[in-house]
Structures are given as structure tokens and as C-alpha cells.
Specification:
With 351 residues, the chain is of the alpha/beta class. It has twelve helices and 14 strands. It folds into two domains: 8-157 and 335-350, 3-Layer(aba) Sandwich (Rossmann fold); 175-333, 3-Layer(aba) Sandwich (Rossmann fold), CATH 3.40.50.2000.
């Protein structure tokens, strides 16, 4: 548990958590749910409605239900939700309607993590309060008619003392990191992997490291990428890096070229990278582009190959300054103790 996190724990808090894929050691959203539960409502049950096989982790109080188990999800909503004083959903702005339809017997808090096309306004009526993990997500909710007073922006929190800048800039070739591989191979281009292949092709003077998590259809994804004949400076490492601190010490910057309304609005690799003193090279469609620009903690470019190539040059030219700014950004917006304090206030108010 992070330093000072115990100050936010209240034994009387009870909640139920509802989310998607449950892989808290390697998947960003479930990792965030596990962190928040441990800090604010220890022992509360988690229900994951997921493409994974159904199962029960009794000691962890986790119920996984495959997408085919709709009636089981309805039963879980009926039986479990009433055991908490607060219902907390984590999901996409337009992909959590299954939860919104079934839940609401207790005050409902919805943390919106993933971009997309918002649901119809009527779907949000049961939600007592929202947390948006970027300003863009907040604006999207308000644009649907949600009262701005019902939406807080809380960026995902990390232990910024765990991710600290290395004392020296890495030696060797300038290396960009991409660590947001999709479980669905059809998202390869929407996640910007195709752009990264082309960037490596036109910029043989840099390296691009791609961490590919061992989930989803890895073989199909690799087949699609191999068909593009990536150059040797586009390096895929097929592994789950549970300790990312060593990875961040080997690279110079992180990247995010998600298409608009795709993926996690605040990718963990960018957030942890900022704390590690790594600036980000992002497209203007990335959920954190506004913070990167405001803090000068990297470069924001159009989502085009030409724009990204220019972004690489600007990043390298201003690298020491942007490296310092990245750490300052992390301290200002991504400190887990700040996030937990704000969540604790919402929990106490709703529950």
C-alpha cells in the first residue's frame, strides 16, 4: 500500500465493484480497481463481466462472468449489490450499458476510463456521480446532458515514489516505448501500431520497443504485424512486464497514437512514464494530449506519419527540459494519495 494511503481507509466502508477484464497484475483498469478497493473498501466484492472464462476467486472475493453469462450477471446484480453501501462501475463511456441497466439499488458511482461514443442520456440517469479520467471524457459526458456538477476529473493515481527518474539519460539509440497492446488484433491500426511501423521505417536512426502482453489472440496479432514487414528497429517483446520500472530505465519516451474514441483515455504507460521522467510523444487524439501540451512534458502531433516524424525531432531537441517537466506533471496530477483523497470524499458523500 502506498505511503499515507492508510489514512484514507475506513473500516465501515462497503462497496461493490463492477468492471471488465480481471487481470490486476497486468491490465490497467483491473489494476486500478484492485488498488482502490484495497485502499478504500477492503474485502468488497468485484464482479468482472469479461471475455475471460467464468470463475470464482473466493479468497480474493472476485466473480468473473463470461460475456455469455448475461443471466448470471443479472443474478449477481440482484444478490451482491445490496451488500454494499456504494456501487462503483469502471468502464467505457459507451460500453458499460450492461451495468447501467442492471445496477442502481445503491448510490452508483461510474468511473469512465475508456473513450468512445457516449450512451444515450437516459442510460446515465441512474448514476449518482461520475469520475472522468481525462478532461476529454468529462466534456463528452457533459455534452450528452450530464450536469457538470455530477462529474469530477480524477486522473489515475500511481505511487510516484515507485516510478522515479533514472539518474542518467539512457545511453545508446533514442528509443520510444509502446506498451498498450490490444487484446483484439483488429485494433492494431486504431491503437497506432501501424503508424509506429511506418515511423520505424522512415526513421532508421531510432528504435521502437513494443511490449506485447500475452493476452487475446497473440498469434493473429503477430501475423498481421509480420505481414507489414516491419524493419529491424521495430522490436516486439512478447512478455508481460509486471515490473515496468526497469523497462522505463531503458527507453527515452513513451508513445500513444490512439485514434479518437479508442482505448484507455489515460494509458498507464504514459502515466508511469511521466513519473519516471519520460516525456510522451502523442497524437492530438490521445486523452492526455492537453496535459502533455500544457506541461510541455512531451510533444503533441497530428495523427499522421509526417506529424509524428516532426514530433520526434522536436522531442529530441528539447529532451532534457521535457524530461524535467514530465516528472513535475506526474507530481501535480497522478499522485495516488491525491486521487485516493478525492475518491474517499466521494465515497463518504455517496455511501
Amino acid at each position: 500500500m502506498d505511503r499515507d494511503v492508510s489514512a484514507h481507509v475506513t473500516a465501515s466502508r462497503r462497496a461493490t465493484y463492477w468492471t471488465g477484464i480481471w487481470e490486476p497484475t497486468r491490465e490497467a483498469i483491473s489494476k486500478e480497481v484492485a488498488w482502490l478497493r484495497a485502499a478504500l473498501a477492503p474485502g468488497s466484492p468485484v464482479v468482472a463481466y469479461t471475455p475471460q472464462p467464468s470463475g470464482v476467486e473466493i479468497s480474493e472475493r472476485v466473480l468473473r462472468l463470461n460475456f455469455s453469462r448475461w443471466y448470471a450477471l443479472r443474478t449477481a446484480a440482484l444478490l451482491l449489490e445490496q451488500r454494499g453501501t456504494l456501487t462503483h462501475i469502471f468502464g467505457g463511456i459507451g460500453t458499460s450499458e450492461h451495468f447501467l441497466q442492471l445496477l442502481g439499488r445503491r448510490p452508483l458511482l461510474f468511473t469512465v476510463v475508456i473513450a468512445g461514443i457516449p450512451s444515450r442520456p437516459a442510460m446515465y440517469e441512474r448514476v449518482r456521480h461520475f469520475v472522468a479520467e481525462s478532461q476529454g471524457l468529462r466534456a463528452a459526458l457533459v455534452d450528452t446532458g450530464v450536469d457538470a456538477r455530477r462529474v469530477d476529473t480524477i486522473y489515475p493515481g500511481i505511487d510516484i515514489n515507485q516510478y522515479t527518474p533514472a539518474p542518467h539519460i539512457p545511453n545508446g539509440r533514442f528509443t520510444l516505448l509502446f506498451a498498450s497492446s490490444p487484446a483484439d488484433p483488429t485494433e492494431i491500426d486504431a491503437r497506432g501500431v501501424g503508424l509506429l511501423i511506418e515511423l520505424a521505417r522512415v526513421r532508421p536512426d531510432i528504435d521502437i520497443m513494443v511490449l506485447w502482453r500475452q493476452w487475446g489472440d497473440v498469434a493473429a496479432a503477430r501475423s498481421i504485424i509480420d505481414s507489414r514487414q516491419p524493419p529491424t528497429n521495430f522490436r516486439i517483446e512478447q512478455r508481460d512486464a509486471r515490473d515496468m520500472t526497469t523497462v522505463y530505465q531503458q527507453v527515452h519516451a513513451t508513445t500513444c497514437f490512439f485514434a479518437a474514441s479508442v482505448g484507455k483515455s489515460a494509458p498507464n504507460s504514459l502515466v508511469e512514464g511521466f513519473a519516471s521522467g519520460l516525456p510522451a510523444l502523442v497524437s492530438d487524439t490521445c486523452g492526455l494530449a492537453d496535459l502533455v501540451s500544457h506541461w510541455q512534458a512531451g510533444v503533441v502531433t497530428p495523427r499522421t506519419l509526417e506529424g509524428i516524424v516532426r514530433g520526434v525531432d522536436e522531442l529530441r531537441a528539447r529532451y532534457p527540459e521535457m524530461r524535467r517537466q514530465s516528472r513535475l506533471l506526474a507530481e501535480a496530477h497522478f499522485d495516488s494519495n491525491q486521487a485516493l483523497g478525492r475518491y474517499a470524499q466521494i465515497y463518504d458523500r455517496l455511501g
